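Recap for those who missed Tuesday's class. We walked through two folding examples back to back. For each one, the amino acid string is listed first and its predicted structure tokens come directly after. Nothing is annotated here on purpose, so try labeling regions yourself before you check the end of the notes.
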Amino acid sequence: MAPRSPRHDIEEDDSADLDHDLRLRTVRTAASTLAESIHTEERRLKRRKTRRMALKIFFRRQSDKGKDRGKGAGEGEDQTGKPAVITGERRRIYVNAEIPLGDLDQHGDPIVQYPRNKIRTSKYTIVTFIPKNLFEQFRRVANVYFLILVILQIFPMFGSSTPQIAMLPLVFILVVTAIKDGIEDYRRARLDEEVNNSATTKLGQWRNVNRAKDPRSWLEKLRGVPHPDKITRGVRKLRERDHQDLQHLVLVKNNGIGSVRSSGTSFVTDTPDKSSVSLESEEGPLSKDHLYPPTPHGGHATGLATPASSIGTKGVDAAFTRARALSSAAESSRSSRVSVGVMDWEHRSSGTAQWERTLWKKLYVGDIVLLRENDQVPADILVLSTSDADGLCYVETKNLDGETNLKPRKSLKATSSISSDEDLEHASFVIDSEPPHANLYTYQGVLRYSNKGNDGSGQTTNKVEPVTINELLLRGCTLRNTDWVIGLVAFTGKDTKILLNGGDTPSKRSKIEKETNFNVIMNFGLLLIMCLVTGIVNGVFLDKTGTSADYFELGAETSSSNAVNAIITFVSGLVAFQNIVPISLYISIEIVKTIQAFFIFQDVDMYYAPLDSACVPKTWNISDDLGQIAYIFSDKTGTLTQNVMEFQRCSINGVPYGEGITEAMKGAAIRTGQDLSADPAAEAAELLRTKATMIDAMKSRWRNPYLQEDTLTLLSPKLIQHLGDTSNPQREKIMGFFRALALCHTVLPDKPEPREQPYLIQYKAESPDEVALVGAARDVGFPFLIRSNNALEIEVLGQVETYVPLRVLEFNSTRKRMSVIVRNPEGQIVLYCKGADSVIYERLAKDHNQELKDATHRDLDTFANGGLRTLCLAYRYLSEDEYASWLRVSEEAAAAVDDRDDKIEEANEQIEHSLTVLGATALEDKLQEGVPDAIELLHKAGIKLWILTGDKLQTAIEIGFSCNLLTNLMEVMIISADSASEARNQIEGGLNKIASMTRSGRTEKRTSDGYGATGFAVVIDGDTLRYALSEELKPLFLTLGTQCDTVVCCRVSPAQKALTVKLVKEGRNVMTLAIGDGANDVAMIQEAHVGCGLLGKEGSQAAMSADYAFAQFRFLTKLLLVHGRWSYIRIAEMHANFFYKNVIWTVAMFWFLFWNSFDATYLFEYTFILLQNLAFTSLPVIVMGAFDQDVNAKAAMAFPQLYKRGVLGLDYTRAKFWAYMFDGLYQSAIVYFVTFLVWSLGTASSWDGRDVGALADFGTTAGVAALIASNIYVGLNTKYWTVMTWVVIIGSILLIFLWIAIYSAFVTYTFNSEAEIIFPLFNFWATVVLVNAWALMPRFVWNFIQQAFMPLDRDIVREMWVAGDLKDKLGIRRRKGSRSDTSITGRDEVVSDTFSDTTDPEAYVPLSAHPYISSPTPRPDIEGMEKGLANPAIQADYHDGVHSPIPLSYYSPSAIRSAMPSPNVATFHDAATARSSDLLSHAAADDPRDSMETVQAPWTQPVSQGNLAAYSAQPHDSGEYEMRPSRQREVSGTSSSSVLSTSTYLTASNGPPTPDPDDDNETIRDMRRESNASYASTYSPRAL
């Protein structure tokens, strides 16, 4: 049989993910999803390797090398899969080198000038604030219209008597908005100033040739910006403070012989200052100098090969130690006088260079800076030299990507010998750098220098050295575990990568504000129609002759031309009817949104005490967008997780160890139907007892001074028992397992306080996984102590063991494993390997114990399905010959020029085989508090969550299952391709999969409490996402992603995050929210409609650029479901009522024109027109917009489905706008014609006998009626009446009469004594009452019909709140005298007003466990409504038919519901469905998640399975009901502290009630006893 070509292999492998019907293969459980992700990547690597082989056959090797280079995400390609094009000119940075004359201007300064390091994220400056802010404000169509009207009113011919007053509303709104925008921007500017004034150390008294002698622009000189070389007051104070520290500073390179590192060992000062750091040896069990970090391959750059044991001596004099260090530094300097690398000792220098303190904003490209441990990197800096002999340094990129693990960077080889300011003066080189760009993961540059050979010939050789991202420190990183770094500033200010990823701060406008432009245009169209009719008809009347105007109005017209007069009348109509386009709306909106922002800031439920931070609104004008979010795009690390790993479980020799249930395991258990009815408080107490027992057992069996009890997370007394029993065969297996954990890693030990706490050892590593693994070994009794070039020292149950490190086979995403080869104390060579279980199992010995393999694999699946991160450990012994033979192969592969990576991998494969399983580990990636419950609430609210993370595929999948974003009921599709065609095939396969399962009926419709049996999720990696975001595949990927419940994007760059958000935002025209905590999230935060940034202990670039900044992800639920929903409904109602009240007022004036020849005469007195929006009707609408509540905050959290109306945009529609407009039109007719009818019945007489027939009398009556109707109308639409509401509405009505009385007291031409005329008049009061009755009756009747027969969700919840016992169930104290008799113990319980965040058991709030009844007399006409909220039925307390009381527990509602069967879910009858709106059909057609769900009160007790048939047979007036269990999206239970957070709510409690202040101590004790004895029912999972 002929061998197949490589192409055939490719085609066969390409279709591995697809079945014969071109459907993408899916998986369900966490373990199978992780295994599938690993297999997918292996297939992908195989495809790449096969392609490379095929290319070698058909192309030449040299061409082939170029094609095979750099296919990583973001390397050589842009985010859409196309070749990357980096625009801009390359920059050259000169250090002690002459700039070519062609690059200098006439003054001798460089032609190309780079920005200084000052940043500005604020939108405005002092100069640009006014013009730029005015431009932003006049983007509103209404503002342009108002400006035109103000200009027209300057001319008296258009009927405006006081143009100065007419312009005040526009000026007021412009000023108020400008002040608000200025305050927002000022806060940003303050943060910018804090960053710009941060301190750093640079090389001073040294000429930076890359900077002009005076780099200031003419504008900066005009503004008085000081010269960069001038010492400002702040810099002077900074230098005075740090003078002593810098004056005697000597930088010493470590020689790699260290053990546990103590702080500051590479700094030596020649002063006795306490703050200075010496090299004196520390007292303690490790009396060695702690020089860090070690050289990995045993080399000593400085030539000091002193054994570790002879470095330090106990009690060495400090002065001698200092002298030794200084002598060593001097010797190093003398030995380096030979020109090595960039050093040229023949180059003349001034010798004046010295380190000096300065500010970040004073740095320029080409400056040389000195960074010390824990310093933040002030700019993008090339590493020239470090304290490590091998040039290594470590940075924490938390501000960039939210990750706290360390990332290694290295110095340039040619500059690594630099260690002093003198060295820098004699260094000469040029950096040829690429232009600045936003990609955080790539950099390409070249170091060019000349070097004289050491052969005495004196010839100069030009040399180059490549510069990559590994030699670049990015602005915002923090230097860790490295004493010092000398670097060259390459990019500053806006050219740094962190700023390029952020972009300019966008000016965001809310969705309602944009829609308001349409409403304004419609009103403007109506205005034009009225004005055209007025102008045309008035012109027709003016053409008539023989009218009274010929006698009484001579010369009254402006022009003799009737056409001109008609035009003037048209413009006068614009002025008269201008209120139909409400300028006061914008004033009121600004006031309301400011109040809403204040309420958000003051919300104590979103206050985070550890950071002393509340939710800070940074953009005030988009609060209503918070109530319409359909998609949330979230980062993972630092946003959903704490980036803290905890060792929870392990399996050793097939025996599992570890107790306690993590959040992830709770969620997994609930998803599988297990009963978790235990009290979390009792569980926590039991775990504490277990931990204490375990610690006591360890202390009694062996000595472990390095144990850190607070960090011990592996709780297993059985493990200690087996380990302490010398006769137990499992003991040796356990010891071998923990030896492997203590040796197989690249962790660096750190001893932060060697004097005070000599046994305190902390570990630093690139991955938090390794820190957790080595930390667990330390706490059990296997601490890792020393890493040096020649030794690895650990303790094994109190006995020191020393191993010789031979080789480290590093971990990478391709290998998915790492190995170490060491020589043990017995002289044997051992290989320890850890990695993914599928990778390890492929390399096990063929004769391996099958029973052990199966047992370990079962434990791995259990751990993975519980949302834990798993690793498998194995080992094998090597013979001397085998190791020597392999070492030669490995060194040859490392020295290869072509295909180096492939050869190294082939060499590793030759030794990583025939392994024996030691066991498996399970780590928990700690979620932030309340994340699972928050995600559950958001999903119930109809919001989809996409995770966009830079982490690897498996990590993202594990977190997805941990936080219940992915469930075992979901069909998970993994999309991974390395070509556009493969990506298309897999995306189309995913769509086919969804379509086939939907057609075959394998999916079930979601029920009220959760989700159907099947949902879909997509996991896609960054490489594939590049193709998916291309123009050809974007529509397909968007369709696939929006049809899935969850999308997880892995290995994505910041630009890809922004493009993904933009794709959904523009492709689906939905509201989006992005949340993150790092600089890599800034782009998507600014791209989304609403951006949220999480605050950190060290600040956050994301929070600085966000619209809302807060501390915890769980606060997002309160922000959206309460504040966002309230703001959306309030603003929507406010807009509609504003347009209504202006229509009723303006159109009433239009009706009057039919009786005055359409000459634009005012019906109302002019002051009424001015004050109508300013005083008479503004406050009720403002109070509605600021304070109205359709449901209480706790009810909104209890029923998150209420949020869906905002997702679907049902509370602010054009239909609603037109309904209010027509309502205003109808009421304007009532206002005018009813008043006209009363006045037509006969001429009334005042109390003094005078006729009441003047226009002022008629107009005032109509005006008062219209104003009162407007205010009462707002009251009818208000849902939450408070004292303020009563006062404002009644006060606004009384103000009308007060103004009439005051203004009529003045001597005026038309309004004199008006109050005396109309107030005593019966016709006046009868007209006002009659007009309001007829005008408001339709609205009152409609509200009644809608709430009684077509109630919305919120109407039912509000009735439950007012008439039912919803307050009792949610723990709200009723008003005095209105307590509900729903006590558990037979007596009224005292409940708390608010949810407490305290963990004090005395503060827990007991709630009733009785089934919920929404109303004392349930109405069948409400129970079957479309909007859901079917009245939960009263159900019996049975457990498999037997009453089974158990103590009430504190659980999240999702956890309680998931442990029990669901209550009845209504199947609506046709008659009931016919009364519903088109909401269901619209939602079902759009998106399954967006359909309105039947909402069930969370505390409702379900019926047992045995009673389903009997109960379902009961008749119901509102239709037929079907009882069935609800398969729902389950979440884990939460801790007692997180249950009381804002993202959860209480369902039941066994804690004591909160006593009344008047209760005595005896009563309080009785209440607590009764509460502790209370019970509630639970149900078996078999009922499901």
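Example two. Treat it independently of the first, because the proteins are unrelated.
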Amino acid sequence: MEGESTEKDEALTTETSAGKSQTAPDRQISAAPGGGIVSEKEPSEQEKAEVLDSKTTEESIKKIPDDFFYDYEEICSRPSVTADSGIPSNLLQLMHSFGYDCTKRANLQLMDEQTVMYIAGNLILILNMKTKEQRCLRSCSGGGIGMIKVHSSYQYFAVAEKGINPHVIIYEYPSLRPFRILRGGTVEAYAYVDFNVSGTLLASVGSSPDYMLTVWNWKEEQIVLRSKAFSQDVFRVTFSTENEDQLTTSGTGHIKFWKMARTFTGLKLQGALGRFGKTALTDIEGYVELPDGKVVSGSEWGNMLLWEGGLIKVEVCRKGKRSCHIGSINQFVLDEGELITIGTDGYVRAWDFETLDAVESVDETGVVEMEPMNELLVGKNVNLFSMVKSHERYSPIWYAQDASGGIWKLDLSFSNITQDPECLFSFHSGKIKGLDTSPNTYLLATTALDRSVRIYDFIAKHPVVEMRFKQGGTSLVWVPSLINPKGGLIAVGFEDGVVRILQLYNPKGLAIVAGRNTTGDAEMCLKQAFKPHNAAVTAFAYERNGELLATGSEDETVFFFATGDKYEPIGFIRVPGPVRELHWSPPSHEQNMLLVLCENGFAVQVPAPSTKAQYPESTFEIHDLPTQYFHFYSIKSRIKRYREIETREEERVRREKIKEQKQKEKEAWIQKQKQIGVELTEEDLLEEPEEEEELPAIYIPEKPSPILCGFYSTPGNFWLSLGGYDSGFLYHCKFPEEQNDQNDFSLRKDEPFDVVPMEYTDNNSIEKIHFSSNKNLMFCGMEDGAVRVYPLLNNDPLLSSIQGYWTLNVHDNDYGCIQALTSSYEGQFLITCGADGNIFTFSILLQEDIEKEMKGRKAKVPSPRKELDMEKAAEDIEDPKAYSIENAKLKREHDQMVKEAEDRKSRKRQELDVLRTEFRQLLMKNRELPTHMQLQRAEFEMDHRIREEMERQTSHRVRTVYKEMAWEQEKHKIGLQKLQARFRDTVEFDTVVVHAIQSDHQVATYRLLALSDKYHRLMKKLKKRRPTRHELKLKEVEAVKEIREAAGEASKRKEEMEQEMPEERTDQWAGTHITANRAEKLKKIIEKAEKAKAKIANRKKEWEELYNKKPSENYEHPEDVMAIKEAKDKIGDFRLKTAADYTVPEHLRINAEKKRGHLAVLEGQIHRQKENMNRKIIALRDFKVSTIEEIKRLVQAVKKIQSTLDLSKHLPIPQIPQMLPEEMPEKKFQYDNEILLKFKLEQEHKLKTQDLSEKHGGFGGFAGFSGHSLAQKQSDRRSRVSLRSWSDRRESSRRSYADEFLQIEEETKMSTELEAEIRKIEEIKNMYMQECFINKINSLISTFDAELRLLRHERQKMDLQMKMGDLMHITLFDELLHLKDFEKREDILQERVTDRIAEKEEMKWKCEDYQQQLEIKKRDIAKLQEREKALCANFNSSLGENNKFANFLTKVFKKKIKRTKKKEVVGEEDEEEESDEESEDESAWDSDEDTGSESDVFDDSVCPENCDPVLFDNTLQLREKRLDIEEALAEEKKVADYYKKEYDGLLRKIKVVESNLMTAEAELEVFQREKQQKLNELYVVVPLKLHQVEYVVNNEIPTEFSQALVFTNHALHGLQYRIKELQLEKVEQRELYKQARQQHKQLIRDRKDIEARIEALEEKCRQEMMLKFGRLVDLEVLQTLSVNTTLEELKEKTLENEMRLAHEIKKWEDKIVEVKRHLMEVTKEHTIKLTQMDTLLLRKKGLEIKLDERQTNPGEEFRVVRKSDIQDRERLMQLVTFQIQEIDVLKEEINLLSRKGGNILPPAQGPVPQNLDNLL
């Protein structure tokens, strides 16, 4: 949002401004009527300076006395009266307020136990709840009141106002005197104010446009701090109750936390914007600061947000993700350890503060579920906005502000004696849309959008009665006394277009009836309700004679009713726009006309319709009513243009006069200049051009300005007040005489013929106009909530006497637009109502006169009619979608037409039936005639073309119907597919009940649904279950270890190769340099030494392998470790799961995912078993079908046989069994056309019955036609045809059977006696076959019944298993439900453990890596040290014995030389250490070189005399190798130290991680135990038989089995077997332990023997060495001694280098001679130049002396030494210095060249001066 983009991540700071405001006594305030505080005395310049000086010290600020008060009469706003108008300022006196601005924030403050205070418009009302008396304070600015707040001491209260530069006024209570005025806090209005706990500071926040947050020292009227709070609306600002230096603000899409911080520049106000993060942005209405600095706020969706450190810590909701409140939370209160919240849902909920304060998020959503401790529902449709607590200590009473218009008294003790919520006061909430007074008494009726109608007694100042409805009221009028003399009827219009006539009466006038409550003074009842409109009713108007009522609506219609005891509709007219007002012409006009004002700029005039006219029955619309239209066309821009022209003309005349005066002055000035002789330019003579501005352009608004109100002036003329652009005038309009464009009246452009300007109404339009009873006062209701009164002369409909006016702001200036105003029946009182929900009553006379006048008078409620208690209650229209009067009439007409059409159709059908009957009779008569006399069917046709045409029409209709029904057909087809997919496709097996044939046994299949896709996905997931992250990481660890081991082996091989390669290269190099005559001898010696080395190396390798195989002290055999682990896993924890210290084994831990897998597996098993059983039953049914077919075949055969036998020999044929419908359920879904037609007839019959019932019940839809459709006729015809065809087929079959029977009889008669014998044989055969077939039938039946009984028994066993499976399924599901509750927490804990394990493993990998690297570096260091030792030994051997240069060569060998090092980056710290060490080393080397060069004692660059040069060069080469080894050794040590440091650090981290891991595992273990305890609470059903129960107490089975354990037989046998197995295993382990102890003792003895033998051999070896060598030597070194190849090579090199160096020395000697000669020449040249320079200087000095002597008074310019001479002298001195340096360099070079055998370095360059060119 904008605020976040502009103020995000910044803290707004503002310095103190205590000295910027002045103290109250220094102010001078003047008040003007209606304007409030209009001016202040401007401080002088001196005063401003004093104020600025006062900023330097706080002591200089003038203190305001504590007893200082302002005068209320001087500062409060008063009515504004036009000057010199003569209107009294007390024209209207406020009497009472019946309203309450219930939607304003915190608009309920408690002053004491009996007094509350709230804002109503421009007033502050102080209400005594006991006496109902009101005291009021007016706004001082006249611009409204933004906020009120009571001081913590209840002695003061702050009133923050609205307007231009509004003030905050502090009043004292109960005196109500203004105590302090705080100025300059905001620009337009205050949104909220709050005192701190101590009451010393006040915080205020402004509204648009500045949103300024200000902290005041209110007693001194000083601003302490100020800053812009936000860039959007700020709802609330409060101080922290614990730390008064902290504040909080909230508003549109933000919450901000402020702190008053003291910095070195002073006190600052720093704000931090709260960041919502993942939570959606929300407006924050309520919040509370907790003692520890956290903040709890509400949200738009009803949840609580806990803020900490500027971020949302958690979001709190109720269980099941329900919101804490439905809607926003408007207020938080921290009271006695409870956090109380109130919301728009009408609930008050109390939450545990400590639980809320310590709550933590458990998942990534950040939402925590929590239930309130207590809650209270205040009432239905209650919207709680704020609460204040009673002042009594420990009192549980609170007073609540209801945004629905109530003030409630609440008891929040939450105990058994808690009182029910009590509504103390009830007001309108929101806009009041209708207002009117009784024509007979002092009663007032109002209606509003809050769905209520209220009656007030404005003399007694109390409400009388209230009636509520289901829709909001939009208009109201009190029925005139002409219609109802008692004045007890009220007409009210509502949002849904309904008009209700309500009757007000005194119930005490009714007869006393049991059960009737007559305690009240007034009651209302519904007399009549009707609905003339389809939208909100906006206006009522009773005709002046009381015969007609006109109602207007937003649906652009005006309806007329005839009044009477019942209102009868006459008709309606349509108008061009939504109706705003209706006015009947006054009695002074001849014609009775109705003026209709529409919001879109139209005015319509129609005459009163006749109540006796008869209009068509089809509609109520009146078409022939003469109508006049007026379409307002804007003329405001032209009026402004004309006024501008007039103003400019006046200005032009004034300027002409000024111009003439200036012209005369200029001519006089020119004349004067000419007299003086001054020449004038053209510019002086030019006249200034006059620039004339363009006139304002003519502007016509695109959208017409809305008409707000109007009234008749003269017949045909009327006044209008418009809003929008055309506001600012009253327009006098006239209906045009010619109404030509009535068909398109929207194109009309009608202009008013006169206007009256209304002062200060361009942006403040006149909303309502009302005249007093004598027409002398015109009351205007303004858009800003003000009331204006214009005095008029008698009989002034043209408003020609309008001049001055009286005005007073009463309603809220921002949203208190006056909706209605009216006067009492006698004209002494004025009542106004506004959009802010307030109702004010004013007296037009003085208050004292009113009290005298009203003394003894009282509002009288009309008495009820005599027949009221006998009348039936009027029927109300509650349905907002009910038909209007017009629509109901149209519906009745439509239904009548439909009925007549159906009657005609029925008559035609009857005639057709008669014709069909006659035609059938003719056909029957024709059939009875002889054949030759019968007519053919074609002869019945009168004309075949008629039949063809009918057939063509029929086929065309059929095609048409097919096309029309195509969409329906497709729709029902898709619907059928969906039904099949939903109910049939998922059924794998339907219920099939197979019955036995000879018994009542039956077996049924399981109704089995196909396994869902979810099951298959879950099973696939279980099959493809991935290993956990811990398992994956363990595998990665193993893989990395293998890789590192392989890498280590490769590095070892590489090192071995590197060690071997230099030796080979050395051998090759040595072989190439040794002469041929000694090569063979040296080769043999080298081979022998190499063999000894190889042997020693192999021996070391064997020892190393042996030591590597040696186990450590803590070594454990892998097989033993695995055996122990397996034993621990198998032993388990045999404590009961119900034990408090039971530890769940890791492999037995269960979670929701595993439990889902168990459920899926169980479902699959149950499904498979049911499927197998169903297949068996289906196979049995198929067997029954085949058995029935076989029985049918056998029965046919038996019948055929019996047809040849005598009846006496017939055996009874078994009855053929039939397949029952429940055995073939799939046939239910097999249908044909006859079934479909039958179903269609049933459905149409149902629809017809339903339509008839709807017709009898009331108005139905327009589509409810009766009668038979074409489809119904066709279905009837088809059904009759199908029945006829079925009867024909039945008759033909009966005939065929008869023919066959006759044929058989004829054949039987034809038999002869010759066939008798054959028949007898056949008879015997047939009797046998008959018996066999019948036995076979009985056998088939018995076999099937036996199979069914077996399968039934199996099914019963299966049922038992299924019941057990269902019980197990229930148990698993209950466990899953419990596990789901633990799932999130378990995932978090398991994730934590897994992360710790992974972290630990990762660190272990690093430790192992560093350890391996460290071992490698140690081996490298050892190798380098060995190489260094070998190098030293080689050097010593090269020296030989008794070498007189041994000390010198040793120094040369051991001397340290500065070398360029190659740096390798190991780490940042190592780089720094290396650089430090290098710098130290370099400085050391430099110091050594310096000392050497100075002492000149030791020079390693020159070989001493008599020293072998070959040996010297060999020493230098060995030194270089030694330095290389030392450098490599230093680098390796640094790297090793780095690895060591990292390794130690990782070890420390591993300890921390292990402790964290143990903590996480402990938490997980506790959680698993808690989860197991929850699972233990579940009940598991285990069916047992008595013989399975072995738990007895006192030889009896106990009634309580809570302490019993249930084992399966398999598990029990397994335990018993395991006991025996463990006993045997125990004996075996004891025997193994005994053998191991004996073996251990034997190994210890063997080790001692071997150690003694080794010690004896070592002593023998030492003795042999002493005997042979006289000292202890290293045998390995001795064995590896061979020819010193290096020495041999050096000797060869020495011979070669002697010749080469001698030649080079000769060359250098020649060069030295040449250089010396050149040096001598240069020296001579420089000497000559110096002599010349000396001579020149002496001459110069002499010349200067002579010049000084000759000039006794030299000029000033010569006294100072010339600058050029100084520069020359300095140049020469620099040249001399340079030459001296060059001489020193040459000397050093000569000394260097003179040394014999030294390394010749390039000549050193002396410093070259920067200005060498100048010197030369």
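Answers for example two:
The two ends are 76 Å apart (CA to CA).
The longest strand covers residues 254-263.
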